Amino acid sequence: MRLDIACIIDDDQIFTYLLSKKMKLLSFSDTLLVFKNGLEALKYLHPILESPEILPSVILLDLNMPVLDGWQFLDEFTKFKINKKITVYIVSSSIDEADHERARGYKEVSQFFVKPITEKDLLDMLAEVGEQSRS
Amino acid sequence: MHTQLELYQLVAPLAKLGIWERNLVTGEVHWNSIIGEILELKDGSAISLEEVLLLYRNPGEIRRVLDEAMRTGQPQSIEAELVTASGNSKHVQLHAGARLENGRCTRIYGTLRDISEIVSMRHRYEDREARFFQAFNHAPIGMALVSLQGEWLQANHSLCQLMGFTEAELLQRTFQELTHPEDLQADLIQMQQLIANNLDWYEMEKRYFHKDGHVIWALLKVSAVRDQAGKPLYFISQIKDITERKKNTETIKKQNERLLNFAHIVSHNLRSHTGNIKMLSDMVIEERDPLEKEALLGMLSQNAGNLLDTLFHLNEVVKINDTGFSNRQALNLKREIDRVLTILSASIIQAEASITLAVNPDLELLLNPAYLESILVNLISNSIRYRDAERSLQVNIAADTASDKTTLRITDNGSGIDLNLHGKKLFGMYKTFHGNDDARGMGLFLVKNQVEAMDGKVFVESVPGQGTTFTLEFTHR
Question: In B, which residues are within 8 Å of A69 by CB distance?
């Protein structure tokens, strides 16, 4: 199973470098988009909402970011009307239960992964998203 | 139809009224049976005036009253204590009248009534009242009698001390005048409920103004004193000073916020660095390509450096909470600002910024010098860093002193910040907003913590594209 387009939104450049390297090794997706904060991601996604073929099918979203953080990104993102199933995973260092509780409040958010991300985490994501695309 | 005499003889025992008469010419004595009962004479028959006088605790006093009646012919009355023939103590009311013929008294007469019960009731009542006022005057909490309109009728020593007024000054004011406007409505509503007898008492936390204008937090408990019909006569207010408690609660709340903030930093920032180190070291182990391995090791070292920085910042946060308040000293504000402008002069010149100062050169404030410097450096360098590229930077620094506080405003015409979007996290640790790579997200966090550690407040106003104003407020104490 290999996804078409995956997207990482995270300001930690070391982390995004490491994660994209892991994803490449696993052949996670054909294309990988990386944005360093919520605003940059929104700016990219907004003009292409009508073109599902170039929208990502999975977004790995960090919470603590400058400019627009993960929550603010979600609040905008959930207003979009999109003709494609996009699975959002939160990938954050936060072990604060309040953050986990808050994430459960978004039906668009599928799971909360706490950093560091392992190979197994990525395989779980692949399995879940693959399951959804088959059904 | 009874004759008048008969009616008298019938009614007097009903009223328990003793009736007596002495004819001073003939020596004849008349008295009804009630006199005998009051005096508890064994056979109830009349005894001589001298013998009667001896029953009184103070015979001289009774004699003076009788003499006065006999001399003037005017009716006299007295309340007195006597010991009956059987040895019981009683309070009686004696009325005496006299008939004068040619300036000479021929007859004296009058009534005698046992008022022991009334007197003891009165004593109990007076005793209770005395005890109440004893407690009232010496109560360690403020107490007052307040009219239904809100005028202070009587105030005890503790209340006067709490409010800073003498009792006379206080009685010229209403509680409404001394109540913080935000708390007045709630007080008045409950007072009306009390007057309407829907409440027996009410209790609330509220703010009063001290004579010198500062706010006092108090726990107020009000009950109403009512007449027989339940109509309220006046209020009894008990006012306990809880200013200290309120302040402590506020401090604890702030400390909890800081602790929570601290937990967040530990949860997020320390974990993100260590998470990266874990991932990096795993990948270093697995990596075959020596060049790639080299690159990963470089990142590992960089990450370890970031971890150290974060630990250093955490230490700075802890230090603020420890020593902030105690290390304050009188500082000349203008001189301190001038010094900071010198420190920043290179970047001010480079940015071609124009800075105006409106600060009284004699103004002194009680502040922690290291904090003041850090606050000024952070705010002014923020103005420089986030200036608008379209126009030359203008920064105005102005201090304004009122009787109770000094306000310092730092206003710039820079790029501003969208407070609707970022307002809540503006002063948070590791929050950056402009996407600049050099922003650490520590400056405003430190500013807020340092200002609050010195018991001050910091506010921000900003319009994106127009500029930002930071306002610092320090109360004098």
Answer: 425
| Contact check, Cβ <8 Å, B263/A96 | yes
Residue B208: inside a domain, yes or no? yes
Q: Which of B271, B299, B430 sits opposite A14 (nearest CB)?
A: B299
Range of the domain at A44: 3-134
Domain of B188: which CATH number? 3.30.450.20
Which region among B1-5, B61-65, B136-140, B306-310 has the lowest average model confidence (pLDDT)?
A: B1-5
Q: How far is A66 from chain B (nearest CA, A)?
A: 5
- Residue appearing with tokens 């409440």: B199
Q: Do B433 and A36 touch (CB under 8 A)?
A: no
Range of the domain at B160: 139-241
For residue B15, tell me if it sits in a domain. yes
* Each residue's pLDDT tens digit, B11-49: 888 889 999 999 988 988 888 889 989 999 887 677 888
Q: How far is CA B365 from CA B205, B208, B360, B362, B402, in A?
A: 32, 27, 12, 10, 13
Interface residues of chain A, partner chain B, Cβ below 8 Å? 12, 14-15, 17-18, 21-22, 36-37, 39, 64, 66-69, 72, 92-96, 114-117
**Domain tally for chain A?**
1
- B82 and B213 share one domain: no
Contact, B413 vs B466, CB < 8 A? yes
DSSP SS3 for B336: helix
Based on the domain organization, do B229 and B297 belong to the same domain?
no
pLDDT confidence tier of residue B435, bands split at 50, 70 and 90 = low
Assess B440–A contact: CB distance below 8 Å, yes or no.
no
Sequence-ordered list of residues with C-beta below 8 angstroms from that of B296, at least 6 positions apart, any chain: B280, B283, B284, B287
pLDDT of A67-105, one tens digit each? 788 999 999 999 988 888 999 999 998 888 888 999 999
Q: Which helix (H) or strand (E) holds A29?
A: strand A29-35
Residue B55: enclosing H or E segment and its boundaries? helix B49-55
* B254 and B212 belong to one structural domain: no
B294 found inside a domain: yes
DSSP state at residue B252: H
d(Cα B282, Cα A42) in Å, to the nearest integer? 33
Whole-angstrom Cα distance, residue A117 to residue A91?
8
Tell me the shortest Cα–Cα distance from A121 to chain B, in angstroms: 13
Question: Is the domain of B309 the same as that of B375?
Answer: no
Q: Is B304 within 8 Å of chain A by CB? A: no
CATH code of A88's domain: 3.40.50.2300
Residues 150-209 of B with CB under 8 A from A: none
